[in-house]
Design goal:
It is built from twelve helices and 37 strands. The chain is α+β, with helices and mostly antiparallel strands and about 625 residues long. A hairpin with a 2-residue loop joins strand 3 and strand 4. The protein is globular, with a radius of gyration of 27 Å. The two termini are about 55 Å apart.
Length: about 625
């Protein structure tokens, strides 16, 4: 019934949506499509798309929709920690492809050897983007990833330049050019330091002022007490706010190899869209009669995804006298003993080994009780952990099952913050954690309500074991209270606040009364392409376009047993990477700094709420800016 293939210069993979009537006679399904199977879209002998089925839906009339992504999508599905010394970005791409079985095509030599990259808990996509960003900073060469014929290619910008023409009267169907000066500022006035005795800075773009009129941006920047630095900031802000926003959109007869990243030449007299452009997003639509059209978003610049490299803090360092400095964070459970038969007890050394590797050795006895509930030691998949990796039931065997089961429990324990919620989430899945925390935590009422809701959603007779926690704990004697501490070298115990800076830049507006109402966060500004990162690990609770916040993401966190919610507003249009329900790790890029919504100039509006949204607290209480 139709095929749509789309891509975005800032995204890892291309997507294909297919709709079809999958029936022989209105009664019987014709083709049994399966998740994980490869699918190809051909136009004659030309392959338009090759990828993997990630989802499908079919109704009782036989109408089916299929969603597939090319192989690059797996770059966003694999996370790990890495260290690279004196490696080029192209070498890093080759290494990751070989390690994770990704087929490689042409990998262009990126030239610059990066002295050192230490990356923790990053997806393959993030690793490659960081490496390419560091390369661009040093040699000003830009590269992007493409998938062709099932192979990953690393292509330099100059290799993507084409002589494709789109013209009115020929292959152009429609064009739209939009621009708006509402957010333009032609001069900047800043004050800094002490508000009672401030320093001042002023910058004006005379040409823009003559064209657009006097429109001034004002902020007080308390952190800057040097007049020269304040003046430099004012001057650097102007180029980002003194021009109207522009959007270029085209619809044209389809050209198969015009995709995001390629360049085209356009000539349209009414909108006066004319000259050379890069394609930033593309959607190719194919109808059953073979009619092929494409919708393109264009840019004068090559706006690929970028992410700055921030070296991680060292967990521990050795001082000159041999003593240890730094701090160690430990999560423990007091006492406890598993009441299990020898068929389970014999696996204690293996369970302890992987518990130690995941930082939860004190939970070894509880893990043995969990194994008793899952398999009683009678089945090879001892922890019934295969499904947590997306595999079928009972695929993992013995030690492999223990390794994954302990790792998965460590993950849910970290997110849950307490044992009973972690145990129930091992059974229900991690989606239960956010659900329960939003409703007061683990209790039988929440357990039964979640089970009923999921059973209804998936049309199951029942969902999970509502008595999973008591079923596990019947095999365990002892405390289930968790204690999370951070021990410094001096032996003192301190609690970590758990947050990091969400982006680079200067704080241009504090949390205070502003313009007659409360400003419930900090504004952080910096010109250029500025990545925004999750300030702590958590679950996306909102991701949408707001009239006030613009492009915005909300994330709910559990830190040392307490719930917080962070807000990231005014992100660049189209840069949001995550949707509601997605899990994000601390430091993961979630978008780019922008100027959407009610915003005056490019910046991030960042909030921290004690509990859920509407309980704002000053981010400076948690993060050093």
């Amino acid at each position: 019934m139709g095929v749509s293939i789309s891509g975005d210069l800032a995204q890892a993979s291309r997507k294909c949506d297919i709709t079809l009537m999958n029936t022989k006679d209105g009664e019987t399904r014709a083709v049994a499509f399966k998740l994980g199977r490869r699918i190809r879209i051909l136009s004659g002998k030309n392959e338009l798309f090759q990828g993997i089925i990630f989802g499908y839906e079919i109704n009782d009339q036989g109408q089916q929709s299929i969603t597939a992504y090319d192989a690059n999508h797996y770059l966003t599905k694999v996370s790990d920690s890495y260290r690279f010394d004196n490696k080029k970005a192209s070498d890093i791409v080759k290494y990751l492809c070989k390690r994770f079985g990704i087929k490689m095509g042409k990998i262009s030599d990126t030239g610059y050897a990066i002295p050192k990259l230490i990356l923790r808990d990053k997806t393959l996509w993030d690793v490659i983007v960081i490496a390419l960003t560091e390369t661009r900073k040093k040699n000003n060469r830009q590269f992007s990833l493409q998938s062709k014929g099932g192979y990953l290619h690393l292509v330099e910008r100059k290799e993507q330049l084409t002589r494709m023409y789109i013209e009115d009267g020929a292959n152009l169907i429609g064009a739209t050019y939009s621009t708006n000066m509402d957010d333009v500022k032609t001069q900047v006035s800043l004050t800094g330091g002490d508000e009672d005795k401030p320093i001042h800075a002023f910058a004006v773009d005379t040409n823009a002022k003559n064209v657009y009129g006097t429109m001034q941006h004002y902020e007080h920047v308390s952190e800057i007490t040097n007049e020269k630095k304040l003046q430099a900031l004012a001057k650097s802000m102007l180029p980002k706010i003194n021009k109207p926003e522009q959007e270029f959109n085209l619809e044209a007869l389809g050209i198969e190899n015009v995709i995001s990243g390629t360049s085209i030449l356009v000539r349209e007299s009414m909108t006066q869209i004319s000259g050379a452009f890069y394609v930033t997003t593309d959607t190719h639509n194919f109808s059953p009669d073979g009619y092929h059209t494409m919708s393109l978003t264009l840019s004068r610049t090559f706006d690929i995804a970028e992410e700055d490299y921030e070296p991680p803090e060292e967990k521990k360092s050795e001082s000159a006298d041999g003593s240890s400095s730094g701090s160690t964070t430990t999560t423990t459970i007091k006492g406890g003993k598993a009441k299990v038969p020898q068929i389970v007890r014999k696996w204690e050394p293996t369970v302890r080994k992987y518990a130690r590797a995941n930082g939860i050795e004190s939970y070894t006895e509880l893990l043995l009780a969990l194994m008793m509930q899952e398999s009683g030691g009678r089945y090879p998949d001892l922890f019934q952990s295969s499904e947590s990796l997306g595999l079928g039931r009972n695929v993992l065997r013995y030690e492999a099952s223990i390794k994954q089961g302990v790792k998965y429990f460590a993950q849910v324990l970290k997110k849950a913050g307490e044992v009973k919620l972690a145990l129930q989430s091992y059974n229900f899945g991690q989606g239960f954690i956010a659900y329960a925390k939003a409703r007061g935590g683990y209790n039988m009422s929440n357990v039964k309500a979640f089970s009923a809701a999921m059973a209804k959603k998936y049309r199951y007779r029942r969902y999970g074991d509502v008595n999973y926690v008591p079923h596990v704990l019947r095999y365990y004697e002892g405390s289930t209270k968790t204690v999370t501490t951070t021990t410094s070298s001096g032996g003192k115990i301190t609690n970590s606040n758990g947050f990091i800076r969400p982006c680079e830049g200067v704080v241009t507006s504090e949390m205070k009364q502003r313009w007659g109402r409360a400003h419930e966060g900090l504004d952080i500004a910096k010109p250029g392409t500025v990545p925004i990162k999750a300030a702590a690990s958590g679950t996306v609770s909102k991701s949408y376009v707001s009239a006030s916040y613009g492009e915005v993401i909300f994330i709910v966190h559990n830190i040392n047993g307490k719930t917080y919610e962070t807000v990231y507003g005014h992100m660049r249009k189209g840069s949001r990477r995550f949707k509601v329900g997605d899990k994000v790790a601390q430091g993961t890029q979630i978008g780019l700094m922008g100027n959407t919504g009610r915003s005056t100039g490019q910046h991030l509006h960042f909030e921290i709420h004690n509990g859920r949204w509407k309980n704002p607290v000053n981010p400076r209480n948690f993060i050093k800016f």
